[in-house]
Design a protein that fits this description.
single chain, 3 helices, coiled coil
């Protein structure tokens, strides 16, 4: 009877040892899986960041291109208007010179030329306004709705699941097995 109880105790100790070993192995597996998941999430984050960086770079290039196009069109109009302004200033100087130095005939002929120049400049400026060449450029952007949805709706990178399965690898020692 003592012998049987001693064997039973020994069997229980062996079984406890096997279960502990199995559980420690399971702990190691869970810890290893955690490390793998962390690495997977880290890689995913890097991939997302790289994608966002690329999208930002492409966007900034496009934005700079559009800004340059707008500014070039505006600068072209300003340059043209500066030329028109110089011509008008030149006309004013001619009028002052005619008042001071020109004969009546010279003044008459000069004023006729100046009137023609003024008419051309006036028509040119009116044409610019009518043809909408002096419209204001407005640079703006709209954020893609999918990006906004992502920001608003995606609350976590991954879902964590804990599964359970039977530990079939534990072989218990039993009295009948001896």
């Amino acid at each position: 009877m003592f012998r049987e109880i001693e064997h039973s105790l020994k069997d229980i100790m062996v079984n406890i040892s096997r279960i502990i070993e199995n559980r420690e192995s399971n702990i190691k597996t869970v810890k290893d899986k955690k490390k793998q998941i962390i690495e997977d999430v880290r890689r995913l984050k890097i991939e997302i960041n790289l994608h966002l960086d690329k999208m930002q770079e492409d966007f900034l290039k496009e934005l700079d291109k559009k800004k340059t196009e707008c500014c070039e069109k505006i600068e072209s109009i300003v340059s043209f208007l500066n030329d028109q302004e110089k011509e008008i200033v030149h006309c004013n100087a001619d009028i002052e010179n005619m008042k001071t130095y020109a004969s009546d005939l010279q003044a008459f002929l000069g004023m006729r030329d100046i009137k023609n120049t003024i008419t051309k400049r006036k028509n040119c400026i009116e044409s610019m306004v009518q043809n909408k060449n002096v419209e204001t450029f407005v640079l703006d952007c709209s954020i893609d709705a999918k990006i906004q949805e992502f920001i608003n709706n995606v609350k976590k990178l991954c879902s964590i699941m804990v599964g359970r399965c039977s530990s079939v690898t534990i072989e218990l020692v039993r009295k009948k097995d001896r």
